[in-house]
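Hey there, shall we discuss this one?
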Amino acid sequence: MWTTIKSISSLLLSYGLLLLGNGMMGTLLGLRSQLEGFSTEITGFIMSGFFVGMLLGALFSVRVVAAVGHIRAFAAFASIMSVAVLAHVLHVDPATWFVLRLIAGFCMAGMIMVVESWVNERATNQTRGQVLSLYMITNYLGQALGQFMMLIGDPAQFQLFIIASMVYSFALVPLLLSTAHAPRPASPQRMKFRALIAISPVGVAGTISAGLANSSLNGMGAVFAKAVGLSVAEVSSFMASAIIGGMLIQFPIGRLSDRFDRRTVLMVTSLGSALTAIALIWAIDQSVLVFILIAAVYGGFSFTVYPLSASQVNDLSDPGQRVQIAAALLIAYGLGASLGPTVSAQAMAFYGPPGFLYFIILVNGALLAITAVRMIQRRRSSKAKTAFLPLGSVSSTSKQLYTAALESDRKAP
């Protein structure tokens, strides 16, 4: 285990710094948008830019890497990201900020793809499961700790933007000093969306629902928390608790899904997400501690929807389709994530702060209904299950590690 950690420590450090800066920027821009007097709807529009950029990056950043190589591509993406972060304070304008977030999302997707391919090159079939677990822990911890970076400065000033830019620049150092030789990333043939739905309507619905709900929390969670009266420190704790809850509960839920019908477990998680969202509405008038603890439980349920849905699709697919399915699921998640902040912001503008949670309840209620109907229409598959693998639901991924782990599981004797 320690040998595995040592072999990828520099790569995980780069990835952790990327997620640290990303977690900080999501919360910072949500709060700063409100301080600048932007409406809730405009704030949602701005925050959705990052997820649109990540979707575009997932589709097209591979061309940049293939053209110039991993090192140059990563350096270029990190440099552009640093500039985009600083540019927010040079011109305060919603349209400009949307474009900057789109650029940041594209660069983030490209950097994650480079890190994943590099880490995947270091992993063997025997250690890939451990590597994926370490990678996901880094994912969640980086995002969670990034929330507390907000306490270093005042969101109304420019210093936090400089700190975020510095973090992205520092993320360059560990990876560029690594001696690993990354392979050229593959650009798999894309599966048609209709074919993906035919394999598992429940899995696709769950993936899109996860994109809608999780991006809403990532993009508008800080705005919601501030609107119900939390301080900056309490907003950071609220966001971090939801992320840490997702990390802690994902593995137990995953193991249950390996033993029972995944659709049943998916229904439990979607119901749990809806019920805890209702509990958060009640907790608005309770103590901050109660509010934050319920947020942790919500994150635990909500962030398991994505990996459960992906596992459900892989259970019903042919092993040879897994690379194409991974790419198609990423697009499905990105489509939901691109819409989540905008729609949840509209709900907040119409219903007030609870509208954010009304949207979460609606998304999970719809997933619950779809899953129940499909369970009635189609019995549990007799195919052997793929092993549950954790997936980071707080940011995008190129899924190179995930796909490689699935392939290793398929080829194991």
Q: What stands out?
A: The first helix runs from residue 2 to 35. The chain has 16 helices and no strands. Residues 2-411 form a domain with the Growth Hormone; Chain: A; fold (CATH 1.20.1250.20). The radius of gyration is 20 Å.
